[in-house]
Structure formats: structure tokens, C-alpha cells
């Protein structure tokens, strides 16, 4: 039975971290809300159900038969072994999950660059605060997070081609997406910084060339970044840093 | 061999979610940085190591022999089965993990009520923005998150005494801590709201009476809440909502 992915229909957003793993593995999945004639109704039906025993707080969530698995890191932890994108060793699976949760935190901070005060308001209603938060993000947080992942690659005893062990795992794919997203949202900051993270950039470039990823990126299933998603390009928030 | 917990030495913070699980289970653990003569040096030695293969991004992290497991939800996912605080069923473990990750998101939003712009600055340097963010948090986010967890309890097919299944899991203990923390940080908001979440409050009160938890809360191992932690009481940020 195909996996069912539930997420907003018009953005990459957090759903994209799950899509990249499913696409790399060539897994059979349905991106439910993007099916012709569907939309987000089916997603809200589950979230608002008053009978479903395990309701998710927010999208994305995965449905595998009757089981509903919410949260990106949880979905990937669940799918990783099934898709051949997790280590065999149980302890190393928790190492991968720990890295994925650092990605989760970083992505939440990316979101807050354009929504630092109130996520129920528009970006346009919190622009001065967004500018202040983005300046701190570019100055402190991008170097802190990317510097950390660069160290993880360099200190991997199996070599710098993967974050954990000597084979591809789902967190490698998530780092690919982080680099993609930051390069879209903060091109000036990233242009000035990229040389500091050679192992991360090499990982990104290698993954872009993997056949299933290259095919996905060129397909209509890969939505373009836009200003409804997590990674948004507002030139006034970007700076050389 | 005892589990080693690494976290800041003067606050409950995120480490408290791990401590509550270890204490409930009566597990053998060492709160490393709080040992006489230790402090946070041992924690930073691991984080800054240039030879450790799996460096954590931030505390808390758990050391179990050679394995380092970072992030609260990851530590609890790892410990849950070993401590008898996770369901037997593999799918339900991912349900518990999904709920724990919703707690993670909520706790990050609590942090941002006093640090909405720049976490490298003091609260005092971002007070107007903190007031705006706290107002939105009290108005929108507390009801959204607590309302969700209340629904999860009510829709549990096994009854409203636990979030998942018919036995205690670590995420029940984390919800206890969330209620404790919110009641400390936002007493006015919570006083006005508590009646809306009877199942959550009943869970909180029942857990406070469990022998190991009651003993822990009365011990010097339970630090008091303070204004260095995640849950901070700044009267000017609290309101009846």
C-alpha cells in the first residue's frame, strides 16, 4: 500500500524533507492534497476528527495504513529503515535522529526570521522585528548551525561524504534541502559564507546529482520556493552579514 | 552502568523532561554538571571535542556507555523502552514520539516569549518585542497547544488518564512539566484558563502524587524554577488573556 503524505498543497515547506527521502528511495507514495480535485480538505478532516485516536497537531503527517505519524523527524525515523536510508545499528539511528532534530530547530529559526512576533499575522505586520531577527540569524545562527554540521562531516570516522557512517541516510538529504533553502532565502549571506563549509557544499552538490534526486528536482513534483513557505526570499532581510 | 545526563547546572530547563522520566523509573543516573566539583566543563569538553565522532549541537544530551544521544525527544525515545515508559507496540512508540515533538515545539515557543529577537541578548534588551510575542502566545498558542493535548486525552480509546494507551509513558510526564512551567511563568493566564483543560489538569495532579515523582519534587535534586531557565516569570509578560 502506498504511503500517504499530508501537507499543505502549494509549498515545499517541512513536507519537502519527507518528499526527498521518499523520492530518493523510489517509494510508492501519494502527496494527498496535491492530487487532482483534492486540496487540503482531507488533511483537515484528520486533524479535526473527533474520533481518530491519534490526531496530529499540524502537518506534515504520514499515513501508513491505520498508523498516523506526525512531525518530520518522527516520519523520517519511522521511514528510514524501511527506505534503506537509516543505519543498521540502533544507536546510530539515534545519532541520525539527533542530527535531524537539530535540522528541525534550525528550520524553526528560519521560519521565525519572517515571523518573529506573531505567526497569525502577515510578515508585513512585523517587518522591523523580522529585520532585527534576521540580522541576528545571519550573524550568529547560520554560522553556528552550518559550522556544526561541517564539523560533524569532518569528524565522521567513515569520511566526510555523509553525516553518519559510510552510506546515505535521510539526514544527508535534509542537509541538502537546508542548503537549497538558505541559498534561496539569503543569497547574499550565503554567497559570502559558502567557502567556509566545503564539506557541506560537496555533500549538497553530490546529492543533487543522484539520479532519483536529479529526476525529482526536474519534475513538476518539485514545487518552486515561494513566499508562502518556510524559506522565503525577502531582499530586505538578506545581507552580506 | 549509570546513565550520564549532561545539561546546564542551575536550571530545570529542557533537562527536566529527561530527569522526570529517569526519576519516575528509579533509574541509575548521574546529573554530571551538578556533581560536587564538576560544573559545565565536562559538558563543553564533549561539545567542543574535535575527535568525538558524534558531537551534540547543544545540551541536554545523554551518555550511555560510548553512545551520545542528544535532544530531549530523542533521549526519551531511546530511554522509553528501557525505563518501561514507552508502549510495546512500535507504531504507538512513534505516536508517543510525535506528541513529544509537539511538546518540543511548544517549549521552543515558550523560550521565544522572552527571547523573540536575539537569543544572544538579554531579555531586558528585547522587552517590547517580548511583550508583543507573549500577548500572542497567551491569546493564541496556549489555547492551541493545551486544547490539542486535552483532545488527545479525551480521544484516547483507552481512556483519558494517559495520552497514549492505558499506561504511563514519558510524554505524560512531559505534559506534567509543561503545566508546572506554564503555571509558574504565566500564573494569571493559567488561572483563567485551567478550567478549560480538565483532563490535562487531572493528569498533572495524578502524576504529582506518584511516589517517585512526589519524592523527587520534594528533594534537592528538583531545582526551583528561575529566570535563567525556559519557563520564566516576568509579571509584565503575563496577562489574564
UniProtKB/TrEMBL annotation, chains A, B:
Q: Name one GO biological process term.
A: glutathione metabolic process
Q: Which InterPro entries match?
A: Glutathione-S-Trfase_C-like, Glutathione-S-Trfase_C_sf, Glutathione_S-Trfase_N, GST_C, GST_superfamily, Thioredoxin-like_sf
At the top level, the lineage of the source is Bacteria
> What is the name of this protein?
Glutathione S-transferase
Q: Which residues form the GST N-terminal domain?
A: 1-87
Q: What are the entry keywords? A: Transferase
What EC number is given for this enzyme? 2.5.1.18
Instruction: List each copy of the GST C-terminal domain by range.
Output: 89-237
Instruction: Output the Pfam families linked to this UniProt entry.
Output: GST_C_3
Species whose genome carries this gene = Rhizobium laguerreae
